[in-house]
Automatic annotation (TrEMBL), chains A, B:
Residues 21-115 form the HTH arsR-type domain. It comes from Actinacidiphila glaucinigra. It comes from the Bacteria. The keyword Nucleotide-binding does not apply. This is DNA-binding transcriptional regulator, ArsR family. The keyword Ribonucleoprotein does not apply. Pfam families: HTH_20.
DNA sequence: CTCGTAGTTCGACCGCCGACGTACCATCTG
DNA sequence: CAGATGGTACGTCGGCGGTCGAACTACGAG
């Protein structure tokens, strides 16, 4: 489902591969919290935050299969946490910091800080790969 | 499961009905986020926060059956978000503000603020009962 | 054109989760 | 004691969610 209907009238990318993002007004707090409550997805978000810039799916190493990986990135995108754009053969992911900050001020940062703290407490078991 | 083993040496309450809470060090961020990502539970937390003091289960009106209600309160307790104590025939619930603040500074407040904001945006559909 | 890399899609599996009703227990009030 | 009130325990049901493998598509490099 969600077959991303797009008329040929708008072709932002040469190849024309685009995926649907919720716009700012559609982002729901419960969905964001749910997205962040999964260890894998939280790890993705932390990695993206640590880099500061966008990263390809394959650059965020997750101990799961490719299809599961795709699944998690989609959940993050559909909940409004990240945005995804195709760049050549790979897909770049970026945190939607501005949107999240506008909707839920301080939320993302406190979650990230909380994750870091907990990581420290538990001795880094939570598993964020440090560059 | 989790049959709350407690020796008779400590009897804090006359009747002796107690329930197990995770202590501060055991509270996990993912569990908290998961607990808060459910609309019903978020509603409970917001109601407790709005009151400032503890409230009985029956005082937090939820559009679900009694047993479902019990379930949600248990999830909140086991994730470390609330504490529960028996008081006479009813069970009092309180936010574990101090513990959450110590572990994840600012997190609870930003979630609560985010919920309020979203409530405003969506015209109060989210359904927090205002006293 | 061919190949390799990067993601996607599909179907399946299985566990968990939210919801319910019923039966039950604990406490207070008469 | 009896009854009422407030929660719990248990079993169940339906659906969602995380995981996988296999087949497939899209793009870039030779």
């Amino acid at each position: 489902m969600i077959p991303q209907q797009l008329p040929a009238t708008a072709a932002p990318v040469p190849g024309g591969r685009v995926c649907a993002h919720p716009d700012r007004a559609e982002i729901r707090l419960e969905a964001v919290l749910h997205a962040l409550s999964d260890p894998m997805r939280l790890r993705v978000v932390r990695t993206l935050a640590a880099r500061g810039v966008e990263a390809a799916c394959s650059e965020v190493e997750l101990p799961v299969s490719k299809s599961t990986c795709t699944h998690h990135f989609r959940v993050l995108r559909e909940s409004g946490v990240i945005s995804q754009t195709y760049r050549g053969t790979s897909k770049m992911n970026a945190l939607r910091r501005a949107d999240l900050e506008a909707l839920f001020p301080g939320l993302l940062d406190s979650v990230l800080a909380a994750a870091d703290r907990q990581d420290g407490r538990l001795g880094g078991v939570t598993g964020l790969v440090r560059a």
